[in-house]
């Protein structure tokens, strides 16, 4: 599985099985992505990142990786974790990924409904 940013400065390859996709509706994800953030997670050993993402420390424990050239939001990681989440929307089709659940739905935007029947937290 391969993916990357809009301008091509940052690309990544996923070589291990990735988790199902979770859609995060928290305020930080909505502000950084422009809607909700859909991502899959993989061990660090299962992803190769080409290029140098810029990192924004969003909280004491979390950083968000993006392309400094085009601004594409690509990665989310608990600092020091051996896993990293990558943007499902940045993966080239076919992805083989499947949306499994919605999280932080109490913070979702008031302009959309979640009506796909998947679990909501």
UniProtKB/TrEMBL annotation:
One of its GO terms (molecular function) is carbon-sulfur lyase activity. It comes from the Bacteria. Residues 1-113 form the CENP-V/GFA domain. Transmembrane segments: none annotated. InterPro entries: CENP-V/GFA, Mss4-like_sf. Keywords: Lyase, Metal-binding, Zinc. It holds the Pfam family GFA. This is GFA family protein. It comes from Pseudoroseicyclus tamaricis.
């Amino acid at each position: 599985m391969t993916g990357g940013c809009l301008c091509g400065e940052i690309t990544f390859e996923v070589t291990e099985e990735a988790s199902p996709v979770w859609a995060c509706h928290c305020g930080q994800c909505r502000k950084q992505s422009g809607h909700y953030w859909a991502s899959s997670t993989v061990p660090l050993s299962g992803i190769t990142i080409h290029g140098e993402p810029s990192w924004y420390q969003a909280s004491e424990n979390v950083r968000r990786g993006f392309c400094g050239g085009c601004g594409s939001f690509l990665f989310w990681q608990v600092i020091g974790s051996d896993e990293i989440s990558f943007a499902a929307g940045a993966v080239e089709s076919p992805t083989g990924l499947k949306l499994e659940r919605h999280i932080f739905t109490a913070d979702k935007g008031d302009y959309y409904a979640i009506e796909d029947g998947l679990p909501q937290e």
